[in-house]
């Protein structure tokens, strides 16, 4: 059996290198080769010999994943799960009636052209209070997340984003610059830690945050498992803001492994075990 680790054609960093090396080692230990390839160029209507039994998509190219899936290639995560988790508006909409505790969220309405100021929108944003968090719907490593301390700052960020889909959220949590990350594989929490950043309101390691051990209560593990199941994640992270009742903020379909594994968790091994277990069951 041979699988493909599919990465973005144009972006690779140490986190992706680590993910491939660890997953490759874990699959190899189970007698399976995992090749590292750039996301293929998709040409509809042209026969393509993919040559792999399964694909692990460490990438967010939903269209390529859908095309692979249409040829009967098992793709992890599924295209639908990747699409939902990669779009913060879609994530919030899918979870909106499930009882998941989230920040109060206001979607900026979809725009085709740069819009004049929308007073109806900002009447709703004002109800969130300031500071307010503004997020582009799609983004990675916290680079598309902003904090507006005043209404004028919020309006300026809104104007600068133009037609990019984005949302506004109430500023929640008891610890600025911290969050709790729970990694779920195959419906079970397999690793957890607290990310903390003393230099920014964003906890992301890419923004200077560090991950540390965290005594995760069973109730939060169960909630992370429930959220991952609703979103259709085979594996990935579910992130919460620390509070007496932690607040869900986002899920990631290709969350980096290095930080969570530095705490002693074997997440890559759990992913390999889950993927191969499912493939072998389907072949019986």
Number of helices: 9
Question: How much helicity do the residues have?
Answer: 25-40%
Spatial extent as radius of gyration? 20 Å
Oligomer: single chain
The portion of residues forming beta strands comes to 15-25%
Class per helix and strand makeup: alpha+beta
Task: Estimate the mean pLDDT confidence.
Answer: 90
Based on Cα principal axes, name the global outline. Answer: globular
SSE ordering: EHEEHEHHEHEEHEEEEHEEHH
Question: Could you explain how this protein is built, in words?
Answer:
It is a single chain. By secondary structure, this protein is of the alpha+beta class. 33% of the residues lie in helices and 24% in strands. The protein has helices at 14-28, 62-70, 79-85, 88-95, 119-126, 151-161, 218-231, 258-261, 267-283, and strands at 2-7, 33-38, 54-58, 75-76, 105-107, 132-136, 145-148, 166-170, 178-185, 188-196, 210-212, 235-241, 247-252. Helix 1 (14-28) crosses helix 9 (267-283) and helix 2 runs antiparallel to helix 3 (79-85). The model has no long low-confidence stretch (mean pLDDT 90).
Layout of strands and helices, then pairs:
Blueprint: E1 2-7, H1 14-28, E2 33-38, E3 54-58, H2 62-70, E4 75-76, H3 79-85, H4 88-95, E5 105-107, H5 119-126, E6 132-136, E7 145-148, H6 151-161, E8 166-170, E9 178-185, E10 188-196, E11 210-212, H7 218-231, E12 235-241, E13 247-252, H8 258-261, H9 267-283
Parallel strand pairs: 1-2, 1-3, 3-4
Antiparallel strand pairs: 5-8, 6-7, 6-8, 9-10, 9-12, 10-11, 12-13
Helix pairs in contact: 1-9, 2-3
């Amino acid at each position: 059996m041979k699988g493909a680790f599919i990465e973005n054609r144009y972006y690779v960093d140490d986190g992706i290198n680590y993910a491939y090396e660890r997953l490759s080692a874990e699959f190899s230990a189970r007698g399976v080769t995992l090749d590292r390839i750039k996301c293929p160029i998709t040409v509809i209507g042209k026969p393509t010999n993919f040559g792999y039994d399964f694909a692990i998509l460490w990438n967010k190219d939903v269209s390529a994943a859908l095309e692979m899936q249409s040829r009967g290639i098992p793709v992890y995560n599924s295209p639908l799960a990747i699409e939902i988790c990669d779009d913060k508006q879609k994530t919030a909409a899918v979870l909106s009636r499930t009882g998941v505790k989230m920040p109060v969220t206001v979607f900026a309405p979809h725009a085709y052209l740069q819009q004049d100021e929308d007073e109806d929108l900002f009447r709703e944003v004002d109800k969130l209070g300031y500071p307010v968090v503004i997020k582009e719907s799609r983004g990675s490593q916290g680079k598309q997340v902003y904090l507006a301390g005043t209404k004028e700052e919020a309006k300026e960020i809104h104007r600068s984003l133009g037609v990019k889909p984005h949302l506004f959220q109430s500023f929640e949590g008891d610890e600025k610059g911290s969050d709790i990350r729970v990694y779920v594989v195959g419906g079970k929490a397999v690793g957890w830690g607290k990310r903390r950043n003393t230099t920014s309101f964003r906890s992301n390691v890419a923004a200077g945050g560090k991950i540390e051990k965290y005594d995760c209560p069973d109730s939060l593990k169960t909630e992370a498992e429930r959220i991952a199941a609703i979103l259709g994640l085979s594996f990935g992270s579910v992130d919460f803001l620390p509070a007496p009742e932690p607040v869900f903020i986002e899920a990631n379909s290709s969350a980096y492994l290095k930080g969570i594994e530095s705490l002693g968790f074997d997440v890559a091994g759990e992913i390999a075990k889950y993927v191969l277990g499912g493939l072998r069951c389907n072949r019986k």
